[in-house]
Description:
The protein is an all-beta fold. The chain contains no helices and nine strands.
Amino acid sequence: MFFVVPVISGIAPTSGPVGTRVTITGSGFVGATAVKFGGVKAPSYIVNSGTTITATVPAGAKSGKIMVTTAGGNATSKTAFTVTP
């Protein structure tokens, strides 16, 4: 079986408080099994397409890079997301 390795090309916005909806763009997102903000798993995310995910910043999230996990592997954002109070 062939799996596509995910790639994150951008995130918007790049900062916000817990509960902020973040749009993650890239490729290979179909079948995503996890989205993490600074290592903290988001309980709520929607795979809109193979190129876009909308995720909500979870309680306890730490500032840092966003990671998307699929059967093809992990993608990490180049830009960090800053959690604000």
